[in-house]
Amino acid sequence: MSDTVANATYPQEAARLVARIDQDPWGSVRPSLYETARVISAAPWLPGEQRRIAYLLNEQAPDGSWGEGPERYRLLPTLSGVEAALAVLRRGATPEETTRRLATAVDRGLAALRALPTAGPWPDTAAAEILVPSLVAKIHEQLTRVREDELAVVGGWRPGPAPALPRGYDQAAPEYVARRYTSAGSLPVKLHHTFEGVARYIPGALIPDGPDLLGSSPAATAARAAAISPAPATGTVSALEAVAQRYSGLFPEAAPILVFERLWVAAALAGVQLPAASLPTVRGWADDLYDPRGVRGAPGLMTDADDTAMAVLVSSLVGLEHTPDPLDLFHNGSHYDCYIGEDTGSVTANAHALQALGSYVSRHPGARHTYGPRTDKLRDWLVGQQRPEGPWPDKWHASPYYATARCVAALARYGGDHASTAVGTAVAWTVETQRDDGSWGIWGGTTEETAYAAQILLSTPDHLPRHARALHRAETYLNDRAGSGHHPALWHDKTLYAPGAMIGAEILAVRERLRTRHGLHRRQTTLTDAER
Q: What is the SS3 assignment for 147-208?
């Protein structure tokens, strides 16, 4: 999605973005190689397989791997690609040229897996501890069957050795997790999104049924269908076909993403000023998405503190009287668990919670006695998560610039003097890590990360005179690349992904803030039209 339109003003671009999102019930993300390969493997009955096989073959990198990002991020998608290619080869019935290309893809993929690091640290992506061992085991089984069946492949092809399980993963993890919940007599919702990792170990009586996507995941849905019956239910086929139609026959890792997309876009644009024409639409989003029982990021997922906090925040920004009460579901005494049963906390979810509480209290001073002590604890917890050199890490994003921008935005406005040192350290780190071309980025300069870094500096007006050069260079970099549209995948799900509309909104908003930054402090102390 393009970040800008030539000669358009900020209100025009923002209104156009809101309208486009409002018309799309699915969301702006690229297809996932991992997810599409899982559907290829588990759902040969789904129309459009030749399109998916072509995508699988065309997406393989020159080094034989699949996926986006650095090599450690390519482990899971490469495992998925190799296993899917083997599954298609074992089924047969593909044209000779396609068969030859699949065999070559397997050889190159296996070589790429052998060339990957043998040990971590591995990315903290969703359920990697289950998905990686599960796929390694499936590849071993597929290769054994290929050899035992003496599969007639072009040129008498025989595949190379199976990949070893990288250190840091436990081959018994998928079965152990499944056995634990089998003993409990139920499968928790938090496992639905990554059900494909445990599908083979779950007894039929515990497999979640229904006509919709399981855990918003095409891969999980296809795995459920394969585990239940050779003949998929009509509802399952319809659900997968609907996603495939939106994404040109392919599949993202979550569908739809409209909750996440709409809330994040609304918050980004409202941080500058929502166009008057867009305000009714955004108010409608906030009213529809807010839920006193907690907000879930997509159908079939657990309710979570991150989406709930953003629904409360956006509601406050557009003048709706929705209380922060649903956040109580996730409070653990010092901060907020992102969801019930969470293993590792999220600083961005808690930064959003601090913003939501702070914004609500600023509009309802009488609520300070209720939420004041909680915001103080939350502030202290966030400060305690900061790394000594200045940034914050987070499990939902590969880049520390995203988490640091969120924490600085919350602490600079609602943290008071207790957070000033943390904010100052983050600002100094940001200035020090700017690249020579004016960008910021963990693996290379990107417009997304440059927008976050500029937000960090713009969140602290008192620092602006000292950092004017850094901001000027950032503005030049962003303006020079406006309209590029393609963003590297930096967000964590099962693998890396890029929510295009949300990234576009962040860049659009920060470019407007940079353009008008000399009046920023005055404007920040004045209510926007939405707040009025």
A: HHCCCCCHHHCCCCCCCCCCCCCCCCHHHHHHHHHHHHCCCCHHHCCCHHHCHHHCCHHHCC
Q: What is the 3-state secondary structure (H, E, C) of 357-423?
A: HHHHHHHCHHHHHHHHHHHHHHHHHHHHHCCCCCCCCCCCECCHHHHHHHHHHHHHHHCHHHHHHHH
How distant is the alpha carbon of residue 271 from its chain centre? 21
pLDDT (0 to 100) of residue 232: 87
Q: Which residues pair with 331 in a beta bridge?
A: 336
Query: pTM, whole model, 2 decimals?
Result: 0.93
- The share of the chain scoring above pLDDT 70, in percent, equals 94
Beta bridge partners of 497: 491
The model's pLDDT over 428-438, given as tens digits with 9 standing for 90+, comes to: 999 999 999 99
pLDDT in tens, 197-217: 999 999 999 998 888 999 999
Residue 3 has pLDDT above 60, yes or no: no
Do residues 393 and 347 touch, judged by C-beta distance below 8 A? yes
Structure confidence by residue, pLDDT tens digits, 265-276: 999 999 999 999
CA-wise closest residue to 146 among 83, 78, 222: 83
CA nearest neighbour of 525 among 413, 358, 409, 367: 413
In angstroms, the CA 42 to CA 84 distance is 9
Can you tell me whether residue 329 is helix, strand or coil?
helix
Which CB contacts under 8 angstroms, 24+ apart, belong to 93-101?
A: 94/53, 96/154, 98/53, 98/57, 99/153, 99/154, 100/154, 100/155, 101/57
**Residue of 360, 288, 370 lying closest to 317 (CA atoms):** 360
Amino acid at 63: D
Asked whether 220 and 252 are in contact (CB, 8 A), the reply is no
Q: Assign 153 a pLDDT band (cuts: 50, 70, 90).
A: low
Output DSSP code: residue 229.
Answer: -
The yes-or-no verdict on residue 452 having pLDDT over 70 is yes
Please check the confidence at residue 77 and state whether its pLDDT lies above 80. yes
DSSP string, 472-499: HHHHHHHHHTTT-------EESSSEE--
- Measured CA distances, 158 to 6, 107, 146 (Å): 54, 9, 8
